[in-house]
Amino acid sequence: MRIKETVSLFFILTLLFLCGCFSPKIKLFSDATDPLKEITLEGKENGKVLLIAVRGFISDSPGKGFLRSEPGMVQSIVSQLEKAEKDSEIKAILLKIDSPGGSVTASDLIYHEIMEFKKRTGVKLVVSMMDLTASGAYYIALPADMIMAHPTTITGSVGVIFMRPRVSGLMEKIGMNVEVNKSGKNKDMASPFRESGEEEQKILQSLVESLGKRFISLVAKHRKPGHEALANISDARIFLAEEALQSGLIDEIGYLSDAVSRAKTMAGLPEDAKVIVYRRSEYPEDNFYNTAGAASDSKGFSLVNINLPDILSDLHSGFYYMWLPGERY
Q1: How far is 262 from 266, CA to CA, in rounded Å?
Q2: Distance between CA 110 and CA 102 in Å, rounded?
Q3: Which of 53, 233, 271, 274 could pair with 293 in a Cys bridge, judged by C-beta atoms 3.0 to 4.6 Å apart?
Q4: Distance CA 161, CA 238 (A)
Q5: Residue 115: φ, ψ to 5°
Q6: Could you list the active site residues?
Q7: Candidates 2.60.120.200, 3.20.20.80, 3.90.226.10, 3.10.180.10; correct CATH number of 29-164+224-298+305-326?
Q8: What whole-number distance in Å separates Cα of residue 145 and Cα of residue 43?
Q9: Whole-structure pTM over 0.90, yes or no?
C-alpha cells in the first residue's frame, strides 16, 4: 500500500510540474540575476584598478543563452561603472577591448556613459586593445586618457555602414510579392522586398555620411591627429599597431601587463595596488587573460549550446560602427 501511495504522489507531482502549477526554482548556472562580486586578480596594497572586459559585438540587446539570462553589453558595462562609482578606492579603469564594433546607438551609449563617469569621478581610464578594436570598439575607447595596443592589434575602421537584407530576387523566384500602401513615397525606405530607387539611395547615403562625420569629429576631438593622418583615418581603413601609432589613433604599443602598470602609474597607485574585476562566478587561478566578462560568467557545464554567432542573432537592418570581416564571436 505504501508503495502505491508513493507512486501516486510522484505521478501527481510530475503532472503539476509539467503543467506549470508546481515549479521549483532550480538554478544550474550563475546568471544575470546574481549580484556582481568583486574579485582581486593581483595586489594587496590600498587603491584599485578595475578591469572591464569588452568582448564581441557591441549591442544593447540582451544576450541569448541556454538556461541562463545574460544582460546586453551596454547594461553590463554601465552596471560595472555604477558599482565602481560607489567605491572610493577605485582610482583607474582598464578597458580590455576585443571587438569588431557594433550598432551605432549602443556604441554611442557606452561612449556617453564612460564620459559621464569620468566627469563625475575623475577616475583615470586606460584602454588595452587586444586582437581587434575596430570601428564602434574604437569609438568607446576615445574617452581614454591613454590607449595602448597589443603589437598585433587591428584597429581603425573609423566609419559607418548601413546594412539591410535583400530578398526581392528570392521573392520573384518563388512567385511571391508584398503589397504596400504608404502615406509617403519614402515610408518603406530600405524595404528588403524591392530595389532601392535613386532618390532613396541618396537619402540613405546622406544618413550614412552624417553618422560617419560624427565619428570622425570625435576622433579629431579626442585624438587630434594631423590633417594627413585624419584623411587616412577618414576612409575607414584598418591599421596594425605601428600604423595606428603613427596616425595618432593610439598612444603606445604594449602588452596587457604594461597597460595595468600604466593605469597604476597614471592614477598614482603603488605598484602592488589591487587589480580587480566584477564577476558573478569565481574561477581558480583567475588572471587578466580570463575572457569571461561580467555578463553571466557561467562556468557550469552546458549540455546544449544553442547560441548563434552574434552576426546572425543580433545583426538586422540598421546603421553600424563595425568592421564586418572582424565579426567572429
Answers
A1: 6
A2: 11
A3: 53
A4: 14
A5: -60, -45
A6: 135, 187
A7: 3.90.226.10
A8: 23
A9: no
